[in-house]
Amino acid sequence: MASIDKEVAAELLPFLRVYKDGSVERYLGSPIVPPSHEDPETGVSSKDITISENPTISARLYLPKLTQPNQKLPILVYFHGGAFIVESAFSSDHHRYLNDLVSQGQVVAVSVEYRLAPEHLLPIAYEDSWAAFQWVASHSMDNYADKEPWLENHGDFKRVFVGGDSAGANIAYNMTMRAGIEGLNGGVRIVGTFLTHPFFWSSKPIGSECTVEHEKSLPCRLWEHIFPGAPDGIDNPKMNPLGPRAPSLARLGCSRLLVSVSEKDELRNRGVWYYNAVKESDWEGEVELVEVEGEGHAFQILKFRCENANNLNKRLVSFLLK
To answer: Which of 158, 192, 275, 306 has a CA positioned 20 to 30 A from the CA of residue 256?
Structure first.
């Protein structure tokens, strides 16, 4: 019989189990891997840096093989997926994916390690991500001390991009919206944002989503656990971009937006719904939708190097190079 301190307090299957002693057992997520100097397949170098000691915020930086010593490259601030509760900027899946994207796109990438729920409930992940984004933008300022050399020497702050997958795409959207409302350090502007299989939801089903006990769907149950007491619940603006208190989509702080969805993804309808809302809003930027047939959620990471994954990454690369 299990001891009292290992009794289950809550379950969010298939992701994790929380015990009454406060410990968390995660069932999904790829292993943590170290950074590498010149990845043998892509030639991309990576290193881990600390952005903040208190609170603890870190990131993995990526630099492609340079053709010139002082070469300036676009900057990509990237947020990993994992439902806000699993995965890491240091995980093998995302490390492999970023190596490939950085190599093809010829960008300096900052993959942010935000703190995860349930140990760190939302909105902490958003605040960590914003602090990291502002730290990147600060490198554009002449009077900013202790600059990270890769960003200082090779980052082009006139070509800043934001992107993410799943929950990371949700964060990327929220960072873009906040940048449009509050502004970034040094007056940095976002050229483009890409959202791959964005994690959005609401209290009312749309499209082909199940209409029976919608409030018991996995996204609703997940949100209740990771952001208890969120104003408006699942219709909080951070999860529902069209919620009752959501800011106007016209405030999006980027010039170009790319939304990608997959046919067999439970979140597919949400991505299309969001794309149409942006397209019909007063936002003055350029928005595109890419749909991949026959694939599921996060296939570009989980089925890395399959033909559809290669094609999607090429589409993202063209977005970064445009």
So the answer is: 306
